[in-house]
Specification:
Shape: globular
CATH architecture: Sandwich
Number of domains: 1
CATH topology: Jelly Rolls
Largest sheet: 7 strands, antiparallel
């Protein structure tokens, strides 16, 4: 399986308007482009030696939105997304869009993976078939940030 390995950050200063969050106790099912995606908490079992897309440390401030783009190749069973800032006193959110531009699930927050630890660590799994091929967008937003907050975003294609 060959998968793209591109993440390109794009900064913008747009404001966050949607405040829906995924229920941390339930799986989130999102029907997008005739594919049902199930978003669930991820286990710490990823092969950290071989991330498909890794972003160097980025910095975000209050009210800032930064888009990251990941090219997903063919034959991908699921995506593992790991947004990590490690500071529970600041709050970041994550929105995920498939290559057609449809949002997957809602707005993900620190608690979306069942743990409040300055990290959003989730899996995105299609209910059938493979993950949609093409460029996915991951939008990180500084919902409540004192000064600036550093973070990393890793996307693993399994």
């Amino acid at each position: 399986m060959v998968a793209g390995m591109l993440i390109v950050p794009v900064a913008s200063a747009e404001e966050e308007h949607t405040l829906n969050s995924a229920d941390k106790d339930n799986l989130v099912s999102a029907k997008n482009d005739k594919v049902d995606y199930i978003v669930s908490p991820s286990e710490d079992s990823s092969d950290t030696e071989n991330p498909v897309s890794i972003l160097s440390t980025q910095y975000i401030s209050q009210g800032q939105a930064i888009n990251h783009y990941v090219s997903v190749g063919s034959g991908v069973d699921y995506l593992e997304v790991d947004l990590n800032w490690g500071d529970t006193s600041d709050s970041l959110t994550l929105k995920i869009y498939n290559p057609s531009g449809t949002q997957i699930g809602g707005t993900y927050r620190d608690s979306s993976d069942g743990s409040v630890n300055g990290r959003i660590h989730i899996n995105i799994t299609p209910s059938s078939g493979d993950v949609q091929q093409g460029t996915w967008r991951f939008r990180v937003y500084g919902e409540s940030v004192s000064g600036t907050e550093s973070y990393t975003l890793n996307v693993y294609q399994h």
